[in-house]
Every structure is written in structure tokens, then in C-alpha cells.
Design a protein that fits this description.
By secondary structure, the chain is mainly α. Helices cover 68% and strands 0% of the residues. It has two domains: 75 residues, Multidrug-efflux Transporter Regulator, Chain: A, Domain 2 (Orthogonal Bundle), CATH 1.10.1660; 56 residues.
Amino acid sequence: MARQATQMTIGGLAKAAGVNIETVRYYQRRGLLPEPERPLGGIRRYGGGDLSRLGFIKSAQRLGFSLEEIALLLKLEDGTGCEDARVIAEKKLADVRGRIADLQRIEAVLDQMVRTCHARQGSVSCPMIASLLMGERGARPA
């Protein structure tokens, strides 16, 4: 089985990593994944290290890291740049917390709009649409 892991074609690598072949090629173009040498008259072969690197990329993406950030992290993979990796992670954490705060504000506004709609009586125009129109008009310069 170890021999199979060191003898994968690009299709085998993509399948083992759970990605598309074009994803592997894209990562190679971006410099995230090295492209192995092509033996004379042969096809490129990928090893377990390539599979591990793809796993690292996918794990980092699930945590919200951009491909640019992942490229920086991959440059630090030898373990000597732990401080730099921590700084990148702290920036990502601050970004995530900012997005959460934004989403909580959006949730509060939408919650109020939905409550207003439920409380609507009679043939009054839709309070949610009216609120959005007022917000849009209020955002335009006079």
C-alpha cells in the first residue's frame, strides 16, 4: 500500500485527496503544490508527501485561510516559523471575529424586520420593504 501512495498519477492523487484533477493543476500553477518531473516518455507520479500537502491545503481552506495565506503557511512548514504562523492565525481569527460581529448585526436587523412583518395589521404596505427603502434613501447623499 505504501508503494501505491508513492506511485499515483494526477488522477489517483486527486481521487485520494477528494479533489478534482483541475484543482491539483490549479494548485500547481499557484505554486502550492510542486509539479513532479516527467520521466522521459512517461507520466508524472505523485507521492505521499503530495497527498499530505493537498490535505494541508484543504484543511487550511476549511478554516477560512485564503490561498495566499496558505502559501505563506506552506513556506513556514519546516517548523522554524512558528511565530510567523501564529501572526497569520491571529489575523485570521480577528477577521473571523469581525465577520461574526457583522453577521450578528445583520441577524438583529433581519429579526426586527421579521417581527415587524408579523405584527403588521390591516392593509398597510409591507414594513420590511418600507424599512429597506428608507435605509436606501437614507444612504444616498442629499
